[in-house]
Amino acid sequence: MKDHTTQVLIGVALILATIAWGRGGAASVFEGLVTGGRILLSVTPLLVAAFLIAGLIQALVSPEVVTRWLGSGSGWRGIALACVGGALIPGGPYVYYPIAAVLLKSGANLGVLITFITAKNLWSISRLPIEVALLGPDLTVIRFMLTLIIPLVLGIVAELLFGRHITAIRQGAPS
After folding, report:
1. 90 Ramachandran zone, left/alpha/beta (phi>0; psi -120 to 50)
2. What percent of the chain is helix, strand and coil (3-state, nearest 5)?
3. Cβ distance 131 to 140 under 8 Å?
4. What is the pLDDT of residues 38-87, one digit of tens each?
């Protein structure tokens, strides 16, 4: 097995199964496996949709277009587009990480990718209604205003410090 992440996750699962066995025997291990299976079944439609979207983006948007709009020559335009894209894209990590992977493989620069992921986590428009409902508009506005420049700054800093390594990063990413 070449993928170390998979090896680590299998190791953690085996350790947790051993602990569950020690605490409650086979019934405890079985309960954990059933719960894990239910979670897998519940997120499978989302995963399938996210990977289909990522694949369709790759098929519909040429690497030349990605490079022109989001590549090393895109400058502020690429960072701004990544901010908007990150803020507007719905869903959790199952949705936006496959899209980020497609952008990485298609020629987006490092600053754009960091901006996109950070904007998704900090500016998610789809999360704002629940945030306002649970925390109130005052706290939501304060939180949003305090995080307003973070995706921009992180994208710029990432590009300045590590942007020259994007080819190695692309080569190290899973296919």
Report:
1. beta
2. 85, 0, 15
3. yes
4. 999 998 998 888 888 888 888 888 888 888 899 888 889 999 999 999 99
Residue 55 lies in a domain: no
Total domain count, the chain: 2
**Length of the chain, please?**
175
3 in any annotated domain:
yes
In one-letter notation, the amino acid at residue 82 is A
Are the C-beta atoms of 50 and 98 separated by less than 8 Å? yes
Between CA 123 and CA 112 the distance in angstroms is: 15
Q: Is residue 5 part of a domain?
A: yes
Cα 104 to chain centroid distance, Å, stands at: 12
Q: Which helix (H) or strand (E) holds 132?
A: helix 128-135
Residue-wise DSSP of 121-172: HHH-GGGHHHHHHHH-HHHHHHHHHHHTTHHHHHHHHHHHHHGGGHHHHHHH
Q: Is the pTM of this model over 0.70?
A: yes
